[in-house]
Write a structure and sequence with these properties.
Elements: E1 2-9, H1 21-38, E2 41-46, E3 52-55, E4 61-64, E5 73-81, H2 84-98, E6 103-106, H3 111-119
Antiparallel strand pairs: 1-5, 1-6, 2-5, 3-4
Family: Belongs to the YciI family.
Protein name: YCII-related domain-containing protein
Pfam family, one: YCII
Length: about 120
């Protein structure tokens, strides 16, 4: 199985009127439940609108993202599926539920981390 990041940009849902957001939440949770039931769901969340803090290798903390950054992630889902096509199918369901386009990217495998998680019972 391969893990994929499915994400959307901050502001991608700004076109949705406030009174419709409960319906979007209900539709989104239905897709999450479907993915959980299918054994594909790993984790997901929306991100608060705030400036990120950037911690450098020397420990210095600065505010970010930098002004030249045009897009930041507004929310994401991680699925663990057999193929890119399956990840794209989940992204399509999320796009309909959230009423915004989704970006799909394959995560790099980390067998050592996976072994640690299995030992921890996760």
């Amino acid at each position: 199985m391969t893990r994929y990041l499915i994400s959307f940009n901050d502001g991608a849902m700004d076109h949705i009127p406030d009174e419709e957001m409960p319906d979007v939440g209900k539709a989104s949770h239905a897709v999450v439940q479907e993915a959980v039931n299918a054994g594909a769901w790993v984790f997901g969340a929306g991100l608060e609108r705030q400036r990120a803090s950037v911690v450098a290798t020397d420990g210095m903390v600065t505010d970010g993202p930098y002004p030249e950054t045009k897009e930041v992630i507004g929310g994401f889902s991680i699925v663990d599926v057999a193929s890119r096509e399956e990840a794209l199918a989940w992204a399509a369901k999320i796009a309909v539920a959230c009423r915004c386009a989704q970006e799909v990217r394959e995560l790099m495998p980390d067998p050592e981390q996976d072994a640690w998680l299995r030992q921890a019972g996760r």
